[in-house]
Design brief:
By secondary structure, the protein is of the alpha+beta class. The protein contains nine helices and 17 strands. It has helices spanning 116-127, 172-184, 190-195, 209-214, 239-251, 281-297, 320-328, 354-363, 365-370, and strands at 4-6, 15-21, 24-28, 42-46, 53-57, 75-77, 83-85, 88-90, 95-99, 105-109, 132-139, 145-151, 158-164, 199-204, 255-262, 269-271, 331-338. A seven-stranded mixed sheet has the order 11-12-14-13-15-17-16, sandwiched between helices. A hairpin with a 5-residue loop joins strand 11 and strand 12 (145-151). The longest helix is centred in the last third of the chain and has 17 residues, at 281-297. It is globular, with a radius of gyration of 20 Å.
Length: 373
C-alpha cells in the first residue's frame, strides 16, 4: 500500500507537500477557511503500518501561536475514539511527529476532536430527559442549526448560562460541556439535584458548528472570530453570536461561563472581569469565592498561572464574558484548558484530553452551587 494522507472529513485540515515515503513526509498547516490563521491540524495517514514515520510541519514556526508547539505532543488514534500522545518536537520553525503506526490507518490531530456526529447524538440523547428542552436559536453562516440545551425549570430563581467552542478548534470545550451535562442529569448526584431546585441551565454546546466542521481553529465560515463580536454581531458575519446574545437578553443571566482552550499555557484557569470599569467589590468577592471553590472541587484547576488583567483592555467588551459581566453585573468568566498537558497533574500517555475535560466540567457544578447566593 502506498502512503496516502487525507483530510476531507469532519474537522480535517492539512496540506501535503510531499509523502514519497514514511520517513520523509512534509506537511503544512492549513489556514482557517476564511481567515489568515493556521494552527489546527487533523488528518488520516494510510499505508505506513509498521514503518517509522517522520512527519514535518514545515510552517509551524509561522503558525498563529507558535509557542503552542513548545513542549507539545500531538494526538493520534486508530478509531477516532481512543486518542493517545505521540512523540513530537519543535525547533522553533519545524514541528516533527515521529511515530510508527501499528495499523494501516491512523489519525493525527492537534487535540482530540469532538465531531459533529457526536454533537448531534448528545443533543438527541439529552432531549429525551424530562428536565431538558433542546431548542433552535437560528442558523449559522453555512445554514447549520444553532441549538440551545435548557436543563431545569425556565422560571427558576437563578439563570446559569454556559457557552462553548466559540473558537471551533478548541474542542476540549465541548468535551467539558458533555461532562457537565452528564453530571447535571445524573439522578444520583446530590449537587445536581440541589442545583436544579433553584437554577436553570442554558447551555450552547457548540457556538461555531461551521468552523468545527471546516477544521478552523478560531473563526466561523465568514472568517469572524466570534469572541470579538459581542458588541455588534450581525446576520452576515456572526449570526451565531447574534442569536445567542438575543436569547441571553430575553432570559436574563446570573452566572455566565465561556469555555475555551489555550494553546500555550499548560494549566486550567479562568479569566475574570476585574479590568471592567464598573466591576464592583461585590463582583470581585463573588469571583474570588468561585475560584477558591473550584480549586477545592478539582485539583486540575488552579489560579497561579493565567492571563494578566490587562490582556484584553482595549477590546474587552467585544468578548463574551466581558460583555455579559459588564451589562448584567454578574459573575462572568472565561475558562481556559490546555492543548498540551496540565502541568500540575501530568498524564504522559494521553496528556490533557477529552475525558479529563469532561471531568473538569462535572466538577464545576460544586462551585456553581456554593456560589448561588
Amino acid at each position: 500500500m502506498t502512503i496516502k494522507i487525507s483530510q476531507n472529513f469532519d474537522s480535517g485540515a492539512i496540506e501535503v507537500v510531499s509523502a514519497a515515503s514514511a520517513g520523509a513526509i512534509d506537511l503544512k498547516l492549513r489556514k482557517d477557511s476564511h481567515a489568515d490563521i493556521h494552527q489546527w491540524f487533523h488528518f488520516r495517514l494510510q499505508g505506513a503500518r509498521g514503518q517509522h514515520c517522520t512527519m514535518r510541519f514545515l510552517n509551524a514556526g509561522q503558525a498563529t501561536y507558535p509557542a503552542g508547539y513548545e513542549g507539545y505532543q500531538a494526538v493520534a488514534s486508530y478509531d477516532s475514539e481512543n486518542w493517545f500522545r505521540v512523540p513530537t518536537t519543535f525547533d522553533g520553525q519545524v514541528m516533527t511527529i515521529s511515530h510508527t503506526p501499528e495499523l494501516d490507518s491512523v489519525y493525527y490531530a492537534y487535540f482530540e476532536p469532538y465531531s459533529w456526529e457526536r454533537h448531534l447524538r448528545l443533543l438527541g440523547e439529552v432531549a429525551e430527559h424530562p428536565l431538558v428542552r433542546v431548542s433552535d436559536l437560528g442558523s449559522t453562516v453555512d445554514g447549520r442549526d444553532m441549538n440551545l440545551v435548557t436543563i431545569g425549570d425556565p422560571q427558576a430563581e437563578k439563570k446559569i448560562w454556559i457557552i462553548a467552542r466559540q473558537h471551533p478548534g478548541e474542542s476540549m470545550a465541548e468535551w467539558f460541556v458533555e461532562g457537565l451535562i452528564d453530571s447535571l442529569l445524573d439522578d444520583a448526584n446530590p449537587i445536581a439535584r440541589k442545583l436544579l431546585q433553584r437554577a436553570v441551565f442554558h447551555i450552547v454546546p457548540n457556538m461555531n458548528p461551521d468552523g468545527s466542521i471546516r477544521g478552523n481553529l478560531r473563526t466561523n465560515a465568514a472568517g469572524a472570530n466570534l469572541n470579538r463580536e459581542w458588541m455588534t454581531p450581525s446576520l452576515a458575519s456572526s449570526p451565531e453570536v447574534l442569536c445567542v446574545k438575543n436569547k441571553i437578553h430575553e432570559t436574563g443571566v446570573d452566572m455566565f461561563f465561556d469555555i475555551h482552550g489555550d494553546e500555550a499555557l499548560p494549566y486550567n484557569f479562568v479569566a475574570g472581569n476585574e479590568m471592567l470599569e464598573n466591576f464592583t467589590p461585590a463582583q470581585a468577592a463573588h469571583q474570588k469565592a468561585f475560584i477558591e471553590r473550584y480549586k477545592q472541587a478539582s485539583p486540575d484547576f488552579q489560579d497561579k498561572f493565567g492571563y494578566a488583567a490587562s490582556k484584553y483592555k482595549s477590546d474587552m467588551l467585544t468578548l463574551a464574558s466581558k460583555y455579559i459581566g459588564h451589562h448584567f453585573q454578574c459573575l462572568a468568566l472565561t475558562l481556559e484548558m490546555p492543548f498540551k498537558e496540565n502541568a500540575d497533574l501530568p498524564d504522559p500517555s494521553v496528556g490533557w484530553n477529552g475525558a479529563r475535560s469532561a471531568a473538569l466540567g462535572a466538577a464545576m457544578l460544586q462551585p456553581i452551587l456554593l456560589s448561588l447566593d
